[in-house]
Write a structure and sequence with these properties.
Immunoglobulin-like, 37 strands, Glutaredoxin, mainly beta, 510 residues, 7 helices, Jelly Rolls, 4 domains
Length: 510
Amino acid sequence: MNIKQILTAIITILTISSGFSQRLVEDFTVTDLDGNEFNLYETLDSGKIVMVNLFSVNCSPCIDNNRFIILESMWEQYGPSGTDELYLISIEAHSGTTESAIYAGSHGEFMQGLSHPLANADMYGHFGSTGYSLLEICSNKIATEIYTVGSNSIYNNPYPGATERCVQDSLGLDIMILDAYMPAFIQVCDEGMFFNPELTVQNVGYDTISQLKIIVTQDGDEIDSLLWTGEIARHETETIYLPELFLYAPSSIVRIEITEINNETGDENMENNYLERNCHMDTFFGGYDNHIDNPVVNIKITTGSNGHEIYWAILDENEEMIAEGGNLLEVGLQGGGANMATAGVGYSSDSVYWETVLLPNEGCYEFIFVDDGGDLTSNRNLRYYIYSHDTTQVLGSKHSKYMSYDKRQIKYSVVLSDVETLEKHNINLFPNPVFNNEFTLSIGTEGLKNLSYEIFNINGELVKRREKIVSPNNGADHINVSLPDLSNGMYLVKIQGDNLNVTERIIVLD
């Protein structure tokens, strides 16, 4: 069995992340508990595949014996005593863990018997993984998350083993698309949306790349092309900003493909030259209903370990600022991934903040969340939630350690009853506007029972309620409603009964 087969076996035995996680890894140096120094880039440049096992002695699944037994078997077969094509190191990555804690407790004797390198270093956020993970790093410095604690599904890898990506790093001319920044959803307020895709590529061949032709197709039709020129040396990455495109509702399938490299048709491996995304519009954006009929929204933000990097804002349809919070001075709308924020400004770390915002008018609003750290520094489980006025309805959320920018659209509109419904039940509210704090509610349907009404102000607060209204005339009822001490403004009247549920506006004036 070769190293590809053993890694495939690991993917079969260990549960791994259901989302394919790859990223460029920064160099690092650690000293293991035996005093031996390890440098990532030097080891990769020597031609070895590197596997890093991140764990914590405070995490029971992380120190499962079966996991380490598999790693020990790999080390024996493919480490220096075997084929010497693999370097494997386990790192206790939790901040503050002492060496004595690693060798203490029920796991201590097992840890002392490990033959592969073991280190103690605060590296939980260095790789951007979703938890204590097993990572494979190829010579191109790309880390693939093979296993993460807490996952219970097997990733359907298109390659027979994760090392296929490393094996192919021996071609002369080979460009690889790492990722593309594109929306998964077309925003709820639009019939479609304009968007500028960002494409991140890496040169995984030996030849320097100086020219790329990129084709963008939408629903099978070519809509744009870009001829990029520059210089990408071996293993270097480049972010390319593509022309603006319009994503049509209800869905658009967008394909980005590199068709020419250095004036040649294709390269030596065309399988990694394209990326396809299905962008679709759904009123339940990301699983949430984004229509509200109350103008009050609540935002909950959990800051994590770098609270000073967080900023949020709400913009109306005219891109006017309605509200903002967090680090206003150093981050702002354009600060995603800038990595310029300093501690002590904006939100505190490891804290929870609640923000309540009143949307001034009906319409669409963009809720924008920015992480200054972006893909450069871990923000330790940044979370935001958007709630309705009474916090019973979740309008949107995101939980990400490496989120440089994210936004949600929410549509606020009062759902008034249609004319047909009002005429059917002969419902009238008069006078409207209301003067002298009193109006009449007329309901002409016969035989209605369990009648009630509720009146709300524009903040969604209940200001008056009346239940179990008796219908002495069996229809054509005129109910006098007094509104003492109400300030001028708009109010909503919700009328309910058997087979009846209507909402109307009233305006109160002195």
